[in-house]
Specification:
There is one protein chain. It contains 5 helices and no strands. The chain is mainly α. It has one domain. The chain is globular and about 30 Å long.
């Protein structure tokens, strides 16, 4: 599932009911408002490394930036 598809799915069901990749996409989208990151690249890196939304929320800004190049 791509970032755009996951984000649309999360918006369709609502953030409180989103799970797995849609939850990851909406989490990264909200973190992108605070950190200087490209949400699509971070999403792809997180999926590649099999990170959950809970694990991504615990990452520092530098670690989020590193996901863009994973």
């Amino acid at each position: 599932m791509s970032y755009d598809e996951a984000l649309k799915a999360a918006k369709k069901v609502g953030a409180s009911k989103a799970e797995n990749e849609p939850l990851l996409a909406i989490t990264i989208a909200s973190l992108a408002l605070v950190h200087a990151i490209n949400p699509r690249l971070v999403f792809d890196g997180a999926v590649k490394l099999r990170l959950t939304a809970a694990k991504v929320r615990k990452l520092s800004g530098l670690a989020l930036g590193d996901l863009m190049f994973a």
